[in-house]
Amino acid sequence: MLAGVLLGQAAVAAGRWASQTAVYTVAARGGLACSEVLVADAPVSCPLAEDLNVVLALATLGLRHEEGRLVPNGLAILDEGVECSSGKGFRVVALPLSRLATEAGSRQSANLAALGALVALAPVVPADALAGEIQARFRRPEPVAAYWAGYEAAGQYRP
Description:
Oligomer: single chain
Strand order of the largest sheet: 3-4-5
Low-confidence stretches: none
CATH superfamily: Pyruvate-ferredoxin oxidoreductase, PFOR, domain III
Number of domains: 1
Radius of gyration: 15 Å
Structural class: alpha/beta
Largest sheet: 3 strands, parallel
CATH architecture: 3-Layer(aba) Sandwich
CATH class: Alpha Beta
CATH topology: Pyruvate-ferredoxin Oxidoreductase, domain 3
Strand content: 15-25%
Distance between the termini: 28 Å
Mean pLDDT: 89
Helix content: 40-55%
C-alpha cells in the first residue's frame, strides 16, 4: 500500500495527476494486498483502472490476481520466485527484489526496490522525485538504498 502512496505523491510533486486505490483481504500478513496507481498528464474521469500497463508483484498471489488485466505488451515486474505460468503477451522482468532490500539493510523494503525497478523500466515519474518522497517518509538511508538498488538492477532490462 505504501509503495502506491509514495508513487502517487511523487507523480503529483512532478506535476502529473495521480489517484491511488487499495484493496486488501482481512489477513494482516500473507493475504492479497493490491495498490493501484493511475498517473496521467491530465485529470482522469475515473480513478479506477480497468486495464494495467504495469504490474509489480512480490508474491504469486498478487500476480495471479492482476495478470489478466495487463494490456498486450504490458510489463510484469516480479520478485524472484514469483511463479508466472503464462506470458499472455506481456513482458516479464524478474529481479531479486527481496534480496536487494535485505542487502540494503531493510528487508521490509522490497516494495521500494520494486518501485525503483518500475521507474527504471517505465519512467512514470522522475527517479529523483520518488527517491525524495521515500527519504521524506523514512528519514533513514536503508529504504532509499533499497529503491536505488531496484533501479540499478532493472537497468539491464531497459528497452
